[in-house]
Amino acid sequence: MSEALAPPFLVTSLVLCIAGLAKLRAPATAAAALGMHPWMIRALAIGEVVLGAACVVHPTRPLGVALAAAYAVFATVAVVLKRRRAACGCFGDNDLPVSQAHVIASELLGAVAVVAAVVSPRGLPWLASQPAVTAAVTGVGVAGAAYAMVLVYTEVPPAWAGWSGG
Questions:
Q1: Alpha-carbon gap, residue 151 to 148, rounded angstroms
Q2: 3-class DSSP assignment, residue 142
């Protein structure tokens, strides 16, 4: 079962890395949302990148638990910011208000991390141990899924609002 969870766990870890890198580049929106100085956001972003990268390179149960805890915090903050109709800056300078999709995505990624932590997460070492074609196809799928999750946070909510008139 843990091998079947390896791709979703990699996606969950990579999304955290992408969010951290985006906040390193542009911390202002997150700083405003959380009432923090941009250097504090950058420090948190470094932590996100380190945790996400560690989960990719050397996944362990404690790292899976830490990843799940991070997503639990993100989901909780997203709920609060959604009520305030505030932007979160999770992916840098995006100033769109937090949506329900944002909350659900954080909860979903957190659930993946919880399950992976329970059954022992697998990451890049597992992927590298697969036959070359399997590793290549899985790697492309993981990259595509990580990109799709970033779009769920950043592009789907405004597209949905425009389409639904909301």
A1: 5
A2: helix
Tens digits of residue pLDDT in 16-26 = 999 999 999 99
**DSSP one-letter code for 78:** H
Q: Tens digit of pLDDT for each residue in 106-157?
A: 999 999 999 999 998 889 999 999 999 999 999 999 999 999 999 999 888 7
Distance CA 43, CA 152 (A): 25
Residues 143 and 15: beta-carbon distance below 8 Å: no
Per the CB < 8 A criterion, the answer to whether 90 and 102 are in contact is yes
Element (H, E) at 118: helix 100-119
Mean pLDDT of 42-61: 97
Rounded Cα–Cα distance for residues 123 and 92 (Å) = 26
**How far is CA 42 from each of CA 10, 15, 65, rounded to the nearest angstrom?**
23, 17, 23
User: How far, in Å, CA of 1 to CA of 97, rounded?
Assistant: 37
